[in-house]
Amino acid sequence: MKTAIIYTSKHGTTRKVAEEIAGLLSPNEVTLIMAGQKEETDLELYDKIIIGGSIHAGTISKSLRKFLKSHRNLLLRKHLGLFLCCMFEEEAEEQMHRAFPEDLRNHAKSCHLVGGEYLFEEMNFIEKAMTRKIAGVSDSVSRLKHDKINQLVRELS
Ligand SMILES: Cc1cc2nc3c(=O)[nH]c(=O)nc-3n(C[C@H](O)[C@H](O)[C@H](O)COP(=O)(O)O)c2cc1C
Which InterPro entries does the record cross-reference, listed alphabetically (predicted)? Predict the structure, then answer.
């Protein structure tokens, strides 16, 4: 099955997850695509589409929101997987609901919260200050849920 993994990533964590998923699939069946890139790929070429986003200040990126809106009908015809990177455990489910429209979530064969990371080396001054204040964290930390990433791949196979 030809697979496209479409993602946006601010500090590289969602890209890392997308690459981990790609590594679990056969190399000649998978293409990684950053949503919002100038050259549009013909998504009709793919049987399976996996979409990944991350939460910053409560929402996914504008380019991923735009992508979901403009490709909604196509996505509802595809073998679909969704994943979300975020760090606030108590708000994770609600953030997932806000990130992906209900019809896409219901249609998806697999939909998972895969944890996230705080990468201080990738943050600007304001992001560092916000992370220290809101999350009480002052060093990089990785809380990726590799079991959920594996489950997503299994459920889509
Ligand atoms: C400035 C900032 C704001 C964030 N806001 C939220 C948030 O509102 N909710 C949440 O669950 N995680 C939040 N996070 C955690 C990110 O979702 C996490 O760092 C994620 O791994 C980022 O993935 P990315 O590098 O692919 O964008 C925030 C992180 C930063 C640095």
Answer: Flavodoxin/NO_synth, Flavodoxin_CS, Flavodoxin_dom, Flavoprotein-like_sf, Protoporphyrinogen_IX_DH
Domain layout of the chain by residue ranges: 3-116+144-156
How far does residue 8's CA lie from ligand 1's centre (Å)?
A: 12
What is the fold, at CATH topology level, of the domain defined by 3-116+144-156? Rossmann fold (3.40.50)
- Residues 101-133 have pLDDT tens digits of 999 999 999 999 999 999 999 999 999 999 999
Name the packing angle between helices 146-156 and 13-24 (round to 10°): 50
Through-space distance between the first and last CA atoms of the chain, rounded to whole angstroms: 9
Neighbours of 57 (CB within 10 A): 7
Q: How far is the CA of 110 from the centre of ligand 1 (A)?
A: 22
